[in-house]
Amino acid sequence: MNIAVIGIGRIGLPLAAKLAATGHTVFGCDISAERVEQVNRGENPIPDEAGLTDLLRDAVRTGNLRATTSTAGAVADCDTVLFTVAVDVDATGRADLNSLFAAAADVARGLKPGALCVFDTTLPVGTTRRELAPRLEGGGLRLGRDFSVAFSPERLLMGRVIEDLVKYPKIVGGVDARGGDRAASFFREALGVEVLQLSSAEAAELSKLSEGVYRDLNIALANELARVADVFEVDISEVIRAANSQPYCHLHVPGTGVGGHCIPVYPRFLIQGEGPSQLAALGRSVNDAMPGYVATRVEELLGGLAGKRVVIFGLTFRPDVAVTHHTNAVDLLREFRARGAVVHGHDALLSDEGVRELGFDPAPEPLQGYDVAVVHASHRAYRALDWRTVASLVVDARNALDREAIEAVGARYMGVGRPVSPD
Ligand SMILES: NC(=O)c1ccc[n+]([C@@H]2O[C@H](COP(=O)([O-])OP(=O)(O)OC[C@H]3O[C@@H](n4cnc5c(N)ncnc54)[C@H](O)[C@@H]3O)[C@@H](O)[C@H]2O)c1
User: Fold this and answer.
1) CATH 3.40.50.720 correct for 2-199
2) Third-level CATH fold of 207-283
3) Helices in 4-97 by DSSP H: which ranges?
4) Which of 39, 101, 106, 113 has its CB 3.0 to 4.6 Å from that of 71, i.e. a possible disulfide?
């Protein structure tokens, strides 16, 4: 089978390599000439993606995977076209679909009669049918008669995309009468994955947004409970462990917010347009307030932050993944600076240049003598730090650190919704 993957980024490239590894001929299409050249050399541009280096090298070596900037030319030979171009929110919080529209226009110019087009990128409900399918007709083919369209969200975690591609059921929903059936057959055959076929693209779109908003609201609830725990000086970790011992309670972990491409973005798709969700908006505002809340707690504990030396560790949005998209580390920087602190940033996965791009002054070596160390993304590399020499107060922004170990070396510990160690 000839398959085109449009957008060979964090999701599209592992998907393309996986399909190529199962023997299909795959064209990876991207507007980035640099990305295309790198892939065609068999070099992995996403080294923190588990298993991708070998898979990509083999896929390119066997000739099963070729990357190109010529999308229209590539799709002319393809029976199936998968879209994995990213959609983010713009400055007003609305979905910015322009990259996906441009990709759909490119595909329309080359689309082969009989092709199946599947949108894997998470979208506001109704976008596949109303906005994207009509754009695919731009080359003269008619939806339903000449080609089919379906929506099928990716349900993956960065860093383990290859594993997750076949781990969870692939949800599909069609736009035209045959779109759903064709997409279901494609994913069963091409990936050997279990498929959950829904009755429409809209149902599939809403299912993906439901997963995202569930997690965002759950974290918002955990954050509110953490703030109550602070009032009563109880430890929210203990509380959540107890509550979750009953099978109907699945409270997540509180922290200074939610970052990345997905969880902070998808609730906004439910806030805009028809059927706006009040809860989605509320959850966003609760989570967005957490960096300020944590900075205020530190300020109160220290009797002010003016002139205090603060270092923020782990600037990526998640531990051990070098992605800074919507990272809350920049919100922490803003909040600590607003209170007069002198803030440095450190990330074991980023260059000094990468640290600067986020607005931080890179922390000079040795990492010692700070008043406060805030651990945002707790990369494995930080496990070896001697907290006692780094800072007298360690703020665990994601409740991910070993409190006892920090206290054992004589540093104070402060988590989110967890009592501060005595002075
Ligand atoms: N990253 C995740 O963890 C994750 C998880 C689940 C689902 N998703 C979904 O996957 C989508 C893609 O995410 P990603 O992390 O792979 O994004 P990414 O930014 O890493 O990759 C997108 C790629 O698309 C390319 N591109 C942009 N415009 C194009 C065009 N007109 N034609 C061809 N290529 C174009 C970019 O150059 C880039 O390489 C997200 O929007 C999201 O809906 C992401």
Assistant:
1) yes
2) N-(1-d-carboxylethyl)-l-norvaline Dehydrogenase; domain 2 (1.10.1040)
3) 12-21, 33-40, 52-61, 71-75
4) 106
Task: Quote the strand ranges of 247-377, DSSP E.
Answer: 309-313, 342-346, 361-362, 370-375
Q: Whose CA is nearest to atom 38 of ligand 1?
A: 9
Q: What is the pTM of this model?
A: 0.94
Where would I find the H helices in 192-258?
A: 201-232, 236-243
Distance 370 CA to ligand 1 centre (A): 38
Strands 391-396 and 412-414: parallel
Q: How many Å lie between the centroid of ligand 1 and the Cα of residue 10?
A: 6
Protein residue with its CA nearest to atom 21 in ligand 1: 9
Domain with CATH 3.40.50.720 in the chain: 2-199, 290-414
Pocket probe for ligand 1: among 13, 15, 30, the residue whose CB has the most ligand atoms within 8 Å is 30
Residue 417: CB within 6 Å of ligand 1?
no
The burial class, CB within 10 Å (0-12 / 13-18 / 19+), for 94 is middle
Cα–Cα dist 297/309, whole Å: 16
Q: What's the confidence (pLDDT) of residue 275?
A: 75
Lowest mean per-residue pLDDT among 44-53, 149-158, 272-281, 389-398: 272-281
Question: What is the arithmetic mean of pLDDT over 294-309?
Answer: 98
Averaged pLDDT for residues 354-380? 97
Determine the Cα–Cα distance for residues 10 and 159; give it in Å rounded to an integer: 9
